[in-house]
User: Fold this.
Amino acid sequence: MIFKESVYTSSAVSNFNAVKVLGEMMTGFFGGWPDEHWQAENKLCRNNSAAFNFIRNATGAALGASLEQIKLYPDGIIKRPEVHAS
Assistant:
């Protein structure tokens, strides 16, 4: 689903190159909140990209709001996910 050399950009946790490194970051990032869930709003899809605002929550914690933008290759593979934390 994600291009093997994809670059993940986040204003909260920096940049990560390639799927393996991104997977390691996500495992650590979400490990602190095993029941984390997102409430997505204002979804927009067009021209090989998608964007949505989301609020992250977990039991006993409001984790913040962010905007995620995902650029896709024409075949649907994720090219460049970007997260802009509020």
User: Anything to note?
Assistant: The chain has one domain: 7-85. The first helix runs from residue 19 to 31. The longest strand covers residues 61-72. The chain is about 15% helix and 55% strand.
